[in-house]
Every structure is written in structure tokens, then in C-alpha cells.
TrEMBL record:
Protein name (database record): Nicotinamidase
GO molecular function: metal ion binding; nicotinamidase activity
Source organism: Chryseobacterium rhizoplanae
Classification lineage: Bacteria, Pseudomonadati, Bacteroidota, Flavobacteriia, Flavobacteriales
Similarity-based family: Belongs to the isochorismatase family.
EC number in record: 3.5.1.19
This protein's UniProt keywords: Hydrolase, Metal-binding, Pyridine nucleotide biosynthesis
């Protein structure tokens, strides 16, 4: 069974000091590097939030406060601080993440009108990123997922992996949650397990 490691959004803006820092984010990087060192993955894929300036998921683009919710193109949208803007330092991958074995990069959130938590598709389930096509082209059947953040982009990427027919595993030690609400991480794990994701570690 061919397997891929999907590393979700390990970017400067989601790490300590970033615009949307996830608590403990940089702690997962040595674990992810060790996974790549100790396992023979057929593919190693990075997903990268890659927003145009003025993206509609930004509070500043809507005259709203960070933490408010609006309806954006028919889908509830949490209002985030400006983050991972194309070409900025914040959008770059963290310098400590070993990229020697990376075979593919998927950029998401490029459409200014709609957010894209999942590495597979946007939140409207309208535009695909090409990740599924890439994995199927390379006969990948099993995916292991790590990265940021557990309760958003990791969760939706994992659920979409299951929906696209992959045996899907989440490395709990390789992810951290935003935890806008204290139980978000716990709830995300339960949701993923219900959808068929195996949680490791």
C-alpha cells in the first residue's frame, strides 16, 4: 500500500510570533521531521495557505472584529486576522521544517471570495486543489496527516481524505489546535474518528 505524508500549513503566521499563532505550534516540527526521517513515504505533500491581500476571510476586509462570524457565499465564515498573504514572510514555511523529502506543494485559499481549510477543496466544495488528482496519479492509498491547525485545516483535510477513499491516519503528536473555544481540539478529534480517521499517538 503506497502512503503519503500530508503536512498541513506549517507556516510562519501559524507559529509563535505569527499573525495567527497556534499555541505550541513549533513543538510539532521535530516530530514531523522525525516522521520523514524514520518512514519511507512514497510522497510528502505540503499544503500552504496562500491568500491574496484583502481575502474575504479576513476581519479587516469586512469591517469586522476578529472572532466574529459572517455568512460568506452561503457558508459560515469565522473572521480571522490577516494571515498567510501571498509573498509575505508569514506565508513561508517555518525554517525548521525539513523539506528535503517534499515532493509536492498544494496552495489553497487563493480565491479571494472563499476560504479553503481543506487541502483538497475550498469551503464551498466548489474548487478542487488538485491534491486528490496528485495522490491518485501516484497510486497513494494511505495518507498520514500532521500540521496546523487541528481544529480547522487539519480536521477538514483529514475528513476529505476519508471522503476521497484514502485510509487516513492523524498523528496526534504532530498537530496543535487554535482552540477558539476550549473544547475545539477534543471535538475535532471526535468528529474525525466518527468520519473514519484513525488517530495515532
Amino acid at each position: 500500500m503506497k502512503k503519503a505524508l500530508i503536512i498541513v500549513d506549517v507556516q510562519n503566521d501559524f507559529c509563535e510570533g505569527g499573525a495567527l499563532a497556534v499555541p505550541g505550534a513549533s513543538e510539532i516540527i521535530p516530530y514531523i521531521n522525525l516522521l520523514m526521517e524514520e518512514n519511507a513515504y512514497d510522497q510528502v505533500v505540503l499544503t500552504q495557505d496562500w491568500h491574496p491581500a484583502g481575502h474575504k476571510s479576513f476581519a479587516s476586509s469586512n469591517g469586522r472584529q476578529v472572532g466574529e462570524s459572517i455568512i460568506l457565499n452561503g457558508v459560515p465564515q469565522f473572521m480571522w486576522p490577516d494571515h498567510c498573504v501571498q509573498g509575505t514572510f508569514g506565508a513561508e514555511f517555518h525554517k525548521d521544517l525539513n523539506r528535503d523529502k517534499v515532493t509536492h506543494i498544494v496552495q489553497k485559499g487563493k480565491n479571494i471570495e472563499i476560504d479553503s481549510y481543506s487541502g483538497f477543496q475550498d469551503n464551498n466544495h466548489f474548487m478542487k486543489t488538485g491534491l486528490d488528482d496528485f495522490l491518485k496519479y501516484h497510486d497513494i492509498q494511505l495518507v498520514e496527516i500532521v500540521g496546523l491547525a487541528l481544529d480547522y485545516c487539519v480536521k477538514f483535510t483529514a475528513q476529505d481524505a476519508v471522503a476521497n477513499g484514502y485510509v487516513t491516519c492523524l498523528h496526534f503528536n504532530g498537530t496543535r489546535a487554535v482552540n477558539v473555544k476550549p473544547d475545539n481540539a477534543r471535538d475535532a478529534i471526535y468528529e474525525m474518528i466518527e468520519k473514519g480517521v484513525t488517530v495515532l499517538g
